[in-house]
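Sat 14:20. Reprocessing the chain from the morning session after the first attempt stalled halfway. Input below, unchanged.
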Amino acid sequence: MLSKISAAQKWIGFQINGMVRLVITASILLGLAVPVYAHHPSGGKISTTFFEGFWSGLGHPVIGIDHLIFVIAIGLLASTVTQGAWIPVAFSLAAMAGTGLHLMGLDLPWAEIFISTSLLISGIFLAKLEKPSTAIISLLAGVAGLFHGYAYGEAIIGATAVPLTAYLIGFTLIQAIIAMGAYKIAIAMKQSSAGDSNFLRFAGFMIMGSGMTFLASSF
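Finished this time. Tokens:
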């Protein structure tokens, strides 16, 4: 009976491993092929209703491939440290603050360069055999969150309070789902007997390549 359970766990772990690799590889290859920074789910139209703002918020971190890859990366990095579940939360809060800075008219220079650099750094951290401390990953999440959120703010400038609030809720929610999903899957793989010890390094090298491509495209 135990052998049957073990075999089932191995099969499930293998399937999860394959699916996660496929999703991450597809996302990163899209990033390599489409280094675009103008991410407007509504085609540049200013949101005027709660639904439009919420929909725009949900879409912005997803159709922005650089943002999407980093959100996945921060979830994977969170799985390497104790109490890592708080790291996606820190990133999401920092992103809200970054959007607030943009809406207040404050300038964060070279935002796209910093966004691409955050991708590169997260890839390096994941690819390293010895992962960084909780403090370093938290610092990366906080600083990167400000710049990613600053970029998100571009899509909602000029909107009234209702769609603006919905936009903030939307992008915070989708980022939390994606990051925590990556975190949970990575944790499950580590606990599984079929977990691939090289999975995070594989993801790291792919994210590094994406980061270098976006960085080269930002100059």
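The radius of gyration is 18 Å.
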